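hey so u asked for the seq, here:
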Amino acid sequence: MTAKNDSSGLHDPLLFYRTLKKRLNTFLKKFYIFFNMNSSMVLALLLMGIAVAIIIFVFRGIRLSSSNRRKQENPPSGPKSICPVCCTPLDPGENLVTKVYKGSAINEKSCSIYGCPHCYPLPHPGVTRSCPVCKATLLPSSYLVAHLFVRDENKNHVHVSGCVNCCSGHKR
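ran it, structure tokens below
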């Protein structure tokens, strides 16, 4: 007899179900009055809202994980270029010592690369000057023969042909 007087309905499954159904109907009636909709439409809108929230959460997580992966793959700090003569990373503000020659083509010019502040005019201790093509040791007066390709974005591209010994038939 005490089970029937228990208002929570935890002991009797049928009473628990009826109580739950009554509370749900009361909730849906309040929703119906507020939004002037029937219970099936409210339930459909509720399910669609939950689905949209899950989709946004999933796509946001995918976007954040891919951007974190890109940040780990491409660290922003570090040298932007390397000297082709001594393979020393160049810090911001350090430039190669070069001579660019006038040519008939607008986009392509011949140039000579003498080195960077680490290897030209005199190499720092522990720095060796060598040709990237034939791997021969370069004298302090030697240089690399290269082609400079001028681009519109002001990001030029250099193709190193070799040292003076490798490229003996090179025309300037």
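The chain has a mean pLDDT of 78. Helices lie at 2-5, 13-35, 39-73.
lmk if thats what u needed
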